[in-house]
Structures are given as C-alpha cells and as structure tokens.
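From the pipeline queue, job 12 of 40. The input is one protein chain; the requested action is below.

Action: predict structure.
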Amino acid sequence: MKLVKDIANRVVRYIGMDVHKDSTTAVVVDAQGHLVMQVTLRTEGSALVDFLRGLRGALHLTFEEGTHSAWLYTLLSPCVEKLIVCNPRQNALLKQGNKSDRIDARKLAELLRLGSLTAVYHGSPGMRTLKELAASHESLMSDGTRVMNRLKSLYRSRGIGCGGTQVYSPRHRAHWLQQLVEPGARQRAKLLYQELDLLLELRPQARRALLAESRKHPAQKILRTIPGLGPVRVARLLAWLQTPHRFRNKRKWWGYGGLGLLTRGSAQYRLQQGEWVASPKGVTVRGLNPAHNAGVKDIFKGAALTACQRPGPLREAYERCLREGRDEHLARLTIARKIATLVLTLWKRGERFDAQRLRREQVA
C-alpha cells in the first residue's frame, strides 16, 4: 500500500488556470497530455487552495500575469511543487483557434507540460514593500509630467507660447491665466494647477519613503558607489531586480534592461567540400530588443547621461568611443552597458566600485 501511495505522489499533474475577477477555470492534464479534470471555481483563496490540496501527485501550476497574479503567487506557491506565472505576450498559442476559459486553461496546461512558457519573476515577499513604494513614486512622477503636458497643450492649442517651466510657477499663474480668454479654458487650467500642486506635494513624501526602505537592503551601499546611480535610481533598481542571480550573464541582463541587440538569421550554414561552414551572410541586427523592462532601461539611460557628464573612468570611456568615430547615441549605449555590467558584477560579488581597477581593465 505504501508503494502505491509513493507512486501516486510521484505522478506529475499539470494545471492551467484561466483567472478572472469572479471565476477561475482550472484544467488538469497528466504527463501524456490526457485530460484529467476541468472545473470552474470562485476566485477566492479558500476555494483555490482546497482544490489544489484535493489533487494527488506532484503539482505543476501556471496562470498568466495579471491583476491577481501577485496575490495568487503568494497564496498558491506552498500548495504546489512548481509554479510559473507566465508572460501572456509570449503565449501565441492562446491567440489561435477558438477561445473560451476552458480552452485557454487547457492550452496553458499543455504549454506547461511541454516546457514552452516564459516565466515572469515575482521575487521574494521581503522585497514587496520596496516594490510597492517604487511603483508609487513612479506613478506620481509620471502623473505630474502628464498634468504638465496637459497644461502646455492647453496654452499652445490657443496660440500661446509657453516654453520653459515658468508656466507651472505659482507666482506667475495669474499672468498665464489672464491670457486664456475663454472661461471654460481658464477653469480647466485652474483645475490642472490644483491637481499639479497636489502631486508636487506628494512627490517628496513618496521619495522619502522609497529611500528609507531602500537603505534597509545591503546592496544599496554597493550600488550607490557606481557612477551615474543616485539614491532614487538605486532604489528603483533594487525594486525591479531584487536579486542579481536571476541572470546567468550580462547578455541576459542586457536583454532584460533593453540594452541587448535583436538579431535575425537563417540558413547560417552550408555544405562546402563535405564540411559544414558558416554562411558569409551572417546574422542581421534589428536594433535593440523591444521585449524589455522599460523602467530598468530608463534607469540605465539616465545613469549613462549623468556618468558621461561627470569626471571619471566612464566619461573617459565615453570620450574614447567618440574619438574612435562612434555616434553619440552608440557611445552612450556602450556606457549604459558598462553601468549595467557593473551593477550585475559588483552586486553578485558584494564589492564596491573601484575607479582605478576599471581604468586598468579598459587599458588592458
């Protein structure tokens, strides 16, 4: 009897879940892809946990990244042997043929069985506070920029030039409002100014909370030594990356940060005198890979601009690239890659940035 139970526990069950606000459809298949069970549940923690605990075998579960994914990842991870929150943009199979909750859940289970899913990293619970604070700070920054753009658009749509930042200043608002003849436009501008004032008041609060939380993590002191990375950029990096061990090498890290090249190649080998040789056609470069984390790319672009303006080994490397004939944007891309590589390497090693060592490596 014990042997039968052990065999049953080693049987792998692949579960695909199509999660919605009110209902979740789950489909279970075995190692051969045969349907074992399909059921519709309420999207409630107790119902989903009870369902998984009622299944036998080694459970492998997947569902798509979405509104509920962070909550479900924390809730269901202890109930299964393997959990993959998959990237919906990579699931081309779900876009083909008929579509329904059960069909989508079955396709997810099948892709999980075949090992064809691209996972979305969810990190550890210990970094969740920092991640939420970083998201709040970025939302306030982007919302403030959006309101500023709307204000300038309002003036420009009526032929009123408003370059610079004076249009946002409380001291000069009466002057700008007088130029809006239409009562509706003037009232709209007043509301936008009120919204901007509230956002500008909240920004410092969000920044202080973010920086205070980031100082609790040991890697913050290491990353702050890298040129171009200020306290806010370091805090955002910690929130996005969480651990450098997610990436085996710098190429994977560059791709995640939007600094990796997208290449296309086909028929790369041909038979010549009985041996396979590389085709002279080679691969075609299609620019930077668009499948990246936009927030991380923004951090490294800003850090590269800062490092290229301040004295140091990275500015020296930037000027050397220009002397070699590279365009400015390609030279900055090189510096951004150097900063990204330093982040990954120093964080993994637990070492601080050494300018003299970097200079020696660049000369060598």
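Job complete. The mean pLDDT is 89.
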